[in-house]
Amino acid sequence: MRGVRAAAASVLAVVALGFAAAQTLPVAPAAPAAHRLPNGMAVRLMVLKEVNSREAKSGDRFKLRVDSPVILDGVTRIPIGAIAWGEIVVAKDTGAVGGKGRLSARLLYVEAPDGRIMLSGSQDRQGKGNTTGVVLSVIGFGVLGLLNKGGNAVLKAGDIVTGYVEDPAPAPDRPQPAPPSPGE
What we know:
With 184 residues, the chain is α+β, with helices and mostly antiparallel strands. It has helices spanning 2-24, 131-141, and strands spanning 42-47, 51-52, 61-66, 70-72, 75-78, 83-92, 102-112, 115-120, 122-126, 154-155, 160-165. The chain starts with a helix and ends in a 19-residue tail after the last strand. The model is unreliable at 14-34, 129-138, 143-149 and 169-176 (pLDDT under 50).
């Protein structure tokens, strides 16, 4: 019994010394905040996979890649090939009677080495209407000609779009909102 107590006391002493040593170790200073890119700085992006109004739906996300490095103060802040994301806002299929497809997308963010950088920017595309084709189809096929469709709107793989850095942090010259009082 005495041996078990001695072993337990030894274990407790080692654990206590470990905690004491951990508490006295110096704490490394926090890493400096990444240098922010200025609001409105352009980021050239390339669509990686075709997005079209026939298959896409509102809320779908799609990938882009940085096509040109973003350099600030001689340092590459966003390298070529960094992944960016966009989101479909509106996707309208062509429908019948030669209607045009419509596709509207907005840029979300780019995954930079220092973390996500929010982007602003949008793309709106329309397919080609086919009114002439519908008229000719009605003449040739009667009422069935009304089923003739127009073209889908497309963001093609390889299309270049420009996004703009959108820093959500308020600028220092803007008035800051008052913090809520404890009772709110």
